From TrEMBL:
<feature type="domain" description="AMP-dependent synthetase/ligase">
    <location>
        <begin position="20"/>
        <end position="372"/>
    </location>
</feature>
<dbReference type="GO" id="GO:0016878">
    <property type="term" value="F:acid-thiol ligase activity"/>
</dbReference>
<dbReference type="InterPro" id="IPR042099">
    <property type="entry name" value="ANL_N_sf"/>
</dbReference>
<dbReference type="Pfam" id="PF13193">
    <property type="entry name" value="AMP-binding_C"/>
</dbReference>
<dbReference type="InterPro" id="IPR025110">
    <property type="entry name" value="AMP-bd_C"/>
</dbReference>
<dbReference type="Pfam" id="PF00501">
    <property type="entry name" value="AMP-binding"/>
</dbReference>
<dbReference type="InterPro" id="IPR050237">
    <property type="entry name" value="ATP-dep_AMP-bd_enzyme"/>
</dbReference>
<feature type="domain" description="AMP-binding enzyme C-terminal">
    <location>
        <begin position="422"/>
        <end position="496"/>
    </location>
</feature>
<protein>
    <submittedName>
        <fullName>Acyl-CoA synthetase</fullName>
    </submittedName>
</protein>
<dbReference type="InterPro" id="IPR000873">
    <property type="entry name" value="AMP-dep_synth/lig_dom"/>
</dbReference>
<dbReference type="InterPro" id="IPR045851">
    <property type="entry name" value="AMP-bd_C_sf"/>
</dbReference>
Length: 516
């Protein structure tokens, strides 16, 4: 390879860190991040990332190192992504609602070099998990504290210099733990390129521009929230952070910051409506009416946005979020983004005929780098040279993609995806449970609630409250059953497995997520 060729290999590299560098040059005075009284321009963000990068280097962070965020929403997550991007490291914003046991599992699985933790609301769980986790060499930095081991002290200790090191944009930058298909969540690794291309798609889908003000009100461990956040940074807009979605705080922030985009789930919107019945807060920058009657989905955006005009699509964390979109044409879920290919495959890896269901398979620049530390699962998912999504779909004669449903049954409760296998695994760990089937039952507010149909061991004394509490202590509270029914036996299919359709029919199951 000639020197000139090698030189252009380096010149062509463009990472997430390079994108932020250019924003500091192109929009130095534009506000990038807002959180309560804190406001940073893109130039100030650049200087903070300089310092953070050098401090992380001094602590041994290098390419492939992993940084875990155990806290709620904060502008500091964006700073960490910027610094990690320069070093080739990986950032995981974990679910701050995890139990101590779930946090221990995440610590052991992710094996971070540094843990950034939060005292407010979740400090007790973080400390309990730190004590119980496998011994390691991770440093613990408190992001909402002060003193030697605080985040701001870490920033202050670094030099405000940028060596403009070149980083391969195909390296993973963001890790997001997906819902548990088989009983335990796995960390999907998303590259710089994936994040930037998906961000570009979101700027178009949601009409995000440098004049946009995005309210980071949903959890940043959710791909939909993170992609909206990154799209805003990509466009040169401002991200306004709230630690968690408190209805009154959201109304105040929307009015004060003239928010144009947000992520708001229906129960929160209902609370906001009640508080704003007298139009105390001017939310006209985000909603057409004070009662928010134009709310249609958690991703709130201008009425003229393509995603509002043609609401529909398909996606998952492993392909960067929504990657098949109705506004791109067709019907059903629509057509794929120009950065991926989609096939509908049968179990043998053959493409199915039009209108014939099979597994949705994807390849291209939006597909993840794989699950962290899951070589066997990665090999299974890519056995045909495509990423098998574990979701069923079909392709219509006009080329449109239709999402049929998960291969593994999923329960949708509000914003959250809940996989029965994880809840069943938790319930089976109770000594009184002989067998169990977890189903979703319709709920007018949350779409579905979790219901456990349990076979108790002979002679065991157990009630519904005990099993619900058992789950509450071991998995995130939103995953626990809201109701428990005891039966003598569960119906079985011809293969000996639990007949989930039979359990649904007998116990009120239904309203599982589908897109026609």
């Amino acid at each position: 390879m000639s020197d000139t060729h090698h030189s252009y290999d380096q010149v062509r590299l463009h990472s997430f860190g390079d994108m932020l560098r250019e924003q500091a040059r192109s929009r130095p005075q534009h506000i990038a991040l807002v959180e309560q009284d804190t406001r940073y321009t893109y130039a100030q963000l650049h200087h903070r990332i300089n310092r953070l990068t050098h401090s992380l280097q001094q602590r041994g962070v290098t390419s492939g190192s992993r940084l875990l965020w155990l806290g709620q929403n904060s502008h500091r997550v964006l700073e960490l992504l910027g610094a990690a991007a320069r070093l080739g490291a990986i950032v995981c914003p974990a679910n701050w609602r995890m139990t101590a046991a779930e946090t221990v599992r995440t610590l052991n699985d992710f094996d971070p070099s540094i843990v950034f933790w939060q005292e407010s609301e979740v400090g007790d769980i973080a400390r309990e998990a730190r004590t119980a986790a496998r011994p390691g060499n991770a440093a613990w930095i408190q992001h909402d504290g002060s003193g030697e081991h605080s985040y701001e002290a870490l920033i202050s200790a670094g030099a405000d210099e940028d060596d403009e090191a070149r980083v391969n944009p195909d390296l993973p930058l963001l890790a997001i733990y997906t819902a548990a298909f088989d009983g335990a969540p796995m960390a999907a690794l998303l590259s710089h390129t994936t994040l930037m291309l998906q961000g570009l798609m979101n700027t178009q889908s949601q009409l995000i521009a440098e004049t946009s003000s995005y309210l980071v009100s949903g959890p940043m461990f959710h791909v939909g929230v993170m992609m909206g956040t990154l799209a805003t940074i990509l466009a040169g807009g401002r991200c306004v952070f709230v630690s968690r979605p408190d209805a009154q705080t959201l109304l105040q922030v929307i009015a004060a910051e003239r928010v144009t985009h947000a992520f708001l789930v229906q129960p929160t919107v209902e609370q906001m409506r009640r508080l704003n019945q007298e139009s105390r807060y001017d939310i006209s920058s985000l909603f057409a009416t004070p009662d928010m009657s134009d709310w249609r989905m958690p991703m709130v955006m201008p009425a003229g946005a393509p995603l509002v005009a043609k609401l529909g699509g398909y996606g998952q964390t492993e392909i960067g979020g929504l990657s098949v979109l109705l506004w791109l044409g067709g019907s059903g879920a629509g057509r794929p983004a120009p950065f991926i290919q989609v096939k509908i495959l049968d179990e043998d890896g053959n493409e199915t005929a039009p209108d014939t269901p099979g597994e949705i398979a994807v390849r291209g620049a939006l597909v993840m780098n794989g699950y962290l530390g899951q070589a066997k699962e990665n090999a299974r998912r890519t056995r045909d040279g495509w990423h098998r999504t574990n979701d069923l779909g079909l392709r219509k004669a006009d080329g449109s993609i239709v999402f049929v449903g998960p291969k593994t049954t999923m329960i949708k409760s509000g914003l959250e995806n809940i996989y029965p296998a994880e809840v069943e695994s938790c319930l089976r760990s109770h000594p009184a449970v002989a067998d169990v089937c977890v189903i979703g039952v319709p709920d007018p507010t949350w779409s579905q609630n979790v219901k456990a149909v349990v076979v108790a061991r002979p002679g065991a004394e157990v009630n519904a409250d005990a099993l619900i509490e058992h789950c509450r202590e071991r998995i995130a509270s939103y995953k626990k059953p809201k109701m428990v029914t005891f039966v003598d036996a569960l119906p079985r299919n011809s293969a000996g497995g639990i007949d989930r359709a039979g359990v649904d029919a007998a116990h009120g199951g239904g309203n599982y997520p589908r897109v026609a």
